[in-house]
Design brief:
- Chain A: Keywords: 4Fe-4S, Iron, Iron-sulfur, Metal-binding.
- The complex is a heterotrimer of chains A (609), B (239) and C (179).
- Chain A contains 24 helices and 15 strands.
- Chain A has 609 residues and is of the alpha/beta class.
- Chain A folds into five domains: 55 residues, no CATH class; 96 residues, Glutaredoxin (3-Layer(aba) Sandwich), CATH 3.40.30; 214 residues, Rossmann fold (3-Layer(aba) Sandwich), CATH 3.40.50.11540; 72 residues, Ubiquitin-like (UB roll) (Roll), CATH 3.10.20; 86 residues, NADH-ubiquinone oxidoreductase 51kDa subunit, iron-sulphur binding domain (de novo design (two linked rop proteins), Up-down Bundle).
- In chain A, the strands form three sheets. Chain A has a six-stranded mixed β-sheet with strand order 5-12-11-15-13-14. A five-stranded mixed β-sheet of chain A has the order 8-9-7-6-10, sandwiched between helices. In chain A, strands 2-1-3-4 form a four-stranded mixed β-sheet, covered by helices on one side.
- By secondary structure, chain B is of the alpha+beta class.
- Chain B folds into two domains: 78 residues, Ubiquitin-like (UB roll), CATH 3.10.20; 132 residues, 2-Layer Sandwich (Alpha-Beta Plaits).
- Helices cover 23% and strands 15% of the residues of chain B.
- In chain B, strands 2-1-5-3-4 form a five-stranded mixed β-sheet, with helices on one face. A three-stranded antiparallel β-sheet of chain B has the order 6-7-10, with no helix packed on it. In chain B, strands 8-9 form a two-stranded antiparallel ribbon.
- In chain B, a hairpin with a 5-residue loop joins strand 6 and strand 7.
- With 179 residues, chain C is of the alpha/beta class.
- Chain C has a single domain, classed as 3-Layer(aba) Sandwich (Rossmann fold), CATH 3.40.50.700.
- In chain C, 32% of the residues lie in helices and 20% in strands.
- The radius of gyration of chain C is 18 Å and the shape is elongated.
- The chains are: A alpha/beta (609), B alpha+beta (239), C alpha/beta (179).
- Chains in contact: A-B, A-C, B-C.
- Chains B and C meet through helix 3 of B and helix 4 and strand 7 of C.
Chain lengths: 609, 239, 179
């Protein structure tokens, strides 16, 4: 092990910024991070061991205790559940003779849940040693169990288990015409860098991650910073459940994305770029690396790009299972090899980003669009869309529709049009923008995709009338509690409290005051959390409470109060140990002897009234 | 003309580079806080110091003062919500004041008193957390840790060490110490370190000193934290 | 004196320290007795409460009997008050929440030093322990909270006089203590 650690540390030039990448390799080799590795890395990278432990304990894919030689993770996204995840998961656990969250006694295999793996159009999905598994079914699980028990190396597993399709059903402005490698850069140099920024400005392009900050302004700000070193970062950490468009863009349009990054580098004056690829997309890593190598060979990266004197290169950095790293400042922390905890702002990344230097962070789709704009000009893009939302939006559509996949629409398109195209006729509601977005009911299908109306990062999940909205809310609320980074009180504690409160209501233990308590808590988490995660973590509850209050109320008991824990269950141990089977050894969950209404407070108790 | 901001209608001056918290403190205005200590880089995590700046919630300890800002702090809404945030800190840990040496000197308790917090409001988590009594002079009781990271910062910024760090994610976040054994006794922490004295709660305590001042005669038994906090600042500036 | 205010009190998983502190109102008790009569309480020996205005509960909920008593109070008291640290957050009895109940019972009745005739008591007269101690607001709705271990006599006095005189009860800074 010593040599292995020594080698990877040396390959990383002993830089602490590579800690996460190094730990990924150790995890991949040993299926955990052994104590010896921590001690050795602490010395080699000259960082305290606590820093290493805090990184390991932050990311879902890193472990301090051994996982199986085959680490199986099954995606827990609502879309996987809609495709029968629960039964499959049980089947898998039984087949492998393993409990959830555990390592089998022989150490061969471990099984657990993981947040959405971005395969919502081809789920139920999972990961084995980080590699994506798609379209899981009983036959596939039988095969996987057999392969594991035979200890077959992953490269000998049948490729269909790992087959990931693009499923592009409706290409639009950006997806219908691939631009030639180098075309965007050539156009940009020919037109002039400043003019190219102007074109991007004319295009009206806004960030595609969901927040919608104007791209040209961000680039302009960054270019005006008084610092020599600047960075370009492509945020490919699409962790929003229901989103998978970046997976497709990087699989089939990577050249354009890299080209967009290079154009950005030329404009802001950056020499180094990063593609922060979510760990779930490990299967794309080598392919992307090859494309980068090609670009270097073709003079599109590296020294003196296209003879224009520009130096720029791109490094791929992998995430390790943390939704929060999609938040740009958390992503930058992660790039620096640390836990992905969002920074205080200001300063914003454009002034102090990676290593404190001015940094542009944009979504994959934004860079793709920028490359196309560099070729075709700003008007080409701006002629499509609405007043405040120019161009098109690429959607990842999943859930109850005939053709889940990738669809590109001009901004301003109605939800109904989208539903017609993807073959969704029975629609209860649509989750726009993923759990952090908005749940709209079937009464709102004429609403439009646009920053003015329904802003979205691209997640579009359709629910038909057989779905239970509270199950959806339950899944999303658990997701946020699991993904909260824990930095600030309102989100750290609040998302866990939301989880408890929604469980109480969904499990039928809610009583009169519980919805008021739920809403009050939602507002607290929303208004006081440090970053977007906490500020949107209550959206699944708030947007459904607004539309389906009756659904929540139906869950409530007709009483004034019910405990949030199982009273009779809490007596089980004592009952068993005392061998008590009499009626007195049990407790009803609520006082069934009839409660009388509680007086409103404070009643005047003044004597003599 | 010096630049000014308005806090709850009161116009106060500030110097370029000051945070809202710094400007407020200098002007004798207390904004509740726990993870903030003027000598250390602000952290902005406890969110107790949330104020409304031109209608938007911001952490006063990290947000820069800017000319003309209209800041609201002591509104009914903010006070109520600060109380709830304090209640969150109480329910996520195990804060049993009657059995804690720090009672009466505890800032978590004092902020709660200041906000007239009478109950926990939320269900209690009763988490399992480790106590580390291994160090000869310093006690670490994670049950009372509120993850303010003041010990982390004090160790790095004042003691030139790296004794503490925060690890884990979400509700599982916890304090760890820098030694192979994971125990405090094997770190280079000394009882004279600033980090050993900075804890706002009773999570890090100096052994054998807990009851030198009897309960009932302690800092917050008779003085509110707003007064104590502002006085401490003014003493430091020789006022 | 038909319109005297009826007050009931009890201690669940508590130490009666809050009751002792209540008695510390000393001679003010006479003043109180003019407008208040005690229903179920350790100081009256009444076994069950009926139609009370105020119920004062000391202690948290650690066993099935606590649940029954708490429910009786909730049903029969217009205003139910959590008195003291244990009622509010489980207090010291809740220290056992970190030890599995199985271990607690084994230690106390089977394996502990000095245990003779090791056996877990089993009698229908004995309440069963809940696996964790809970504050009372997690089991019934509570209207007011009086913190302290115990709350001082002045806290009881201030709270009751506020209520009796028709004011919204409030505690000034010097009366709020958790220790």
């Amino acid at each position: 092990m010593r040599q292995f650690i020594q080698d990877i540390a040396e390959n990383s030039h002993y830089r602490a910024t590579h800690l996460l990448q190094i730990l990924r390799q150790v995890q991949s080799r040993y299926h955990y991070i052994p104590e010896e590795a921590i001690a050795q890395l602490s010395g080699l990278l000259n960082i305290p061991r606590t820093q290493i432990i805090s990184v390991i304990e932050f990311y879902s894919f890193l472990h301090l205790t051994p996982r199986g030689q085959y680490e199986l993770l099954i995606s827990d996204s609502i879309t996987d559940h809609m495709l029968g995840k629960k039964d499959l998961f049980d089947y898998l656990a039984k087949k492998l003779d393993i409990a959830v969250g555990e390592v089998r006694k022989d150490g061969l295999v471990s099984l657990d849940n993981t947040s959405c793996t971005g395969m919502c159009d081809q789920g139920p999905a999972g990961l084995v040693n980080g590699y994506a598994l798609t379209r899981l079914d009983c036959a596939g699980i039988d095969k996987i169990a057999e392969l594991i028990n035979q200890q077959k190396p992953l490269n000998e597993w049948p490729s269909e288990l790992f087959q990931v399709d693009d499923n592009i059903y409706k290409p639009g402005l950006l997806l219908s015409q691939q631009i030639e490698q180098g075309a965007a850069l050539k156009s940009a140099f020919k037109r002039g860098i400043k003019e190219t920024l102007k074109e991007i400005d004319y295009s009206g392009l806004r960030g595609r991650g969901g927040a919608g900050f104007k791209t040209a302004i961000k680039w302009q700000f960054c270019s005006e910073e008084q610092q020599a070193e600047r960075y370009v970062v492509c945020n490919a950490d699409e962790g929003e459940p229901g989103t998978f468009k970046d997976r497709v863009l990087l699989n089939s349009y990577a050249d354009q994305v890299f080209e967009g990054m290079t154009v950005c580098a030329a404009i802001i004056g950056a020499r180094q770029g990063f593609l922060y690829l979510r760990g779930e997309y490990l299967h794309l890593h080598d392919k992307l690396q090859t494309i980068l190598d090609q670009r270097r060979q073709n003079g599109l990266l590296g020294n003196n790009i296209l003879g224009a004197g520009l130096y720029f290169d791109i490094e791929i950095r992998l995430g390790a299972g943390a939704y929060i790293c999609g938040e740009e400042s958390a992503l930058i922390e992660s790039l620096e090899g640390k836990a992905g905890v969002p920074r205080n702002r200001p300063p914003y990344p454009v002034t102090q980003g990676y290593l404190g230097k001015p940094t542009v962070v944009n979504n994959v789709e934004t860079f793709l669009a920028a490359a196309c704009i560099a070729v075709n000009g700003g008007d080409w893009f701006a002629s499509i869309g609405t007043e405040k939302s120019k161009g098109t939006k690429i959607l990842s559509i999943s859930g109850d529709c005939a053709q889940p996949g990738i669809y590109e629409y001009p901004f301003g398109t109605t939800i109904q049009t989208v539903l017609n195209d993807c073959g969704a006729s029975d629609v209860l509601g649509v989750q726009i923008g993923g759990p952090s977005g908005t749940f709209i009911s079937n009464q709102e299908l004429e609403r439009k995709l646009a920053f003015e109306d329904l802003a979205t990062g691209g997640s579009f999940i359709v629910f038909n009338s057989s779905r239970n909205i509270l199950d959806v809310v339950h899944n999303f609320t658990h997701f946020f509690a699991h993904e909260s980074c824990g930095f600030c009180t309102p989100c750290r504690v609040g998302t866990s409290l939301l989880k408890k409160q929604i469980d109480k209501i969904v499990e039928g233990h809610g009583s009169a005051g519980d919805i008021v308590a739920l809403e009050e808590l939602c507002q607290l988490v929303k208004n006081y959390s440090h970053c977007g995660l906490g500020q949107t973590a209550a959206n699944p509850i708030l947007t459904t409470l607004e539309r389906y209050l009756g659904l929540y109320e139906n869950q409530l008991k007709e009483i004034s109060f019910e405990p949030g824990f199982d009273l009779d269950g809490a007596l089980e141990i004592a009952r068993r140990m005392a061998n008590r089977y009499d009626a007195g050894a049990h407790l009803a969950q609520t006082d069934e002897s009839g409660s009388r209404p509680i007086a409103s407070l404070p009643p005047s108790l003044a004597v003599g009234e | 003309m010096s630049k000014t901001i308005t806090i709850d209608g009161k116009v106060i001056p500030f110097e370029e580079g000051q945070t809202i918290m710094e400007a407020a403190t200098a002007a004798g205005i207390y904004i509740p806080h726990l993870c903030h200590q003027p000598e250390f880089t602000p952290h902005g995590s406890c969110k107790l110091c949330t104020v409304k700046v031109n209608g938007r919630n911001c952490s006063a300890c990290t947000f820069p003062a800017m000319d003309g800002q209209d800041v609201l702090s002591e509104t009914e809404e903010l006070i109520d919500d600060r109380r709830k945030i304090t209640q969150m800190l109480f329910v996520e840990g195990n804060h049993l004041c009657p059995g804690c040496e720090k009672t009466g000197n505890c800032q978590l308790q004092a902020v709660a008193y200041h906000l007239n917090m009478l109950d926990n409001h939320f269900p209690l988590f009763y988490p399992d957390r480790e106590v580390d009594a291994s160090h000869p002079d310093v006690m670490l009781d994670r049950n009372r840790c509120i993850l303010c990271t003041l010990c982390v910062r004090a160790s790095q910024q004042k003691d030139g060490k790296n004794v503490f760090a925060v690890s884990g994610r979400g509700i599982h976040k916890h304090l760890i110490v820098n030694s192979d054994s994971g125990l405090l006794k094997d770190t280079d922490l000394e009882a004279t370190d600033r980090a050993a004295h900075i804890c706002p709660t009773g999570a890090i305590l100096i052994k054998r000193t807990g009851y030198r001042v009897p309960i009932g005669e302690r800092i917050y038994d008779h003085k509110e934290i707003d007064q104590v906090s502002l006085e401490a600042e003014h003493v430091k500036h020789g006022e | 004196m038909a319109n005297k205010i009826r007050v009931a009190t009890t201690s669940l998983a508590g130490c009666f320290g809050c009751h002792m502190s209540f008695l510390d109102i000393d001679e003010r008790m006479l003043q109180l007795a003019e407008v208040v009569e005690f229903d179920r309480s350790p100081i009256t020996d009444i076994e069950h409460c009926t139609n009370c205005d105020i119920g004062l509960i000391e202690g948290g909920v650690c066993n099935s009997e606590n649940v029954h008593v708490l429910r009786e109070f909730r049903k029969n008291c217009k205003i139910l008050v959590a008195v003291g640290a244990c009622a509010i957050n489980g207090g010291l009895p809740a220290l056992r929440n970190h030890i599995p109940l199985e271990e607690c019972l084994n230690e106390a009745y089977i394996e502990g030093i000095g245990v003779e005739k090791p056996k877990i008591p089993s009698d229908i007269e004995l309440p069963l322990l809940l696996n964790q101690v809970h504050p009372i607001h997690e089991v019934v709705k509570i209207d007011y909270f009086l913190p302290g271990c115990p709350p001082s006599a002045d806290v009881f006095w201030k709270f009751l006089t506020d209520l009796i005189e028709g004011r919204e009860p409030s505690l000034p800074y010097e009366l709020v203590h958790y220790d």
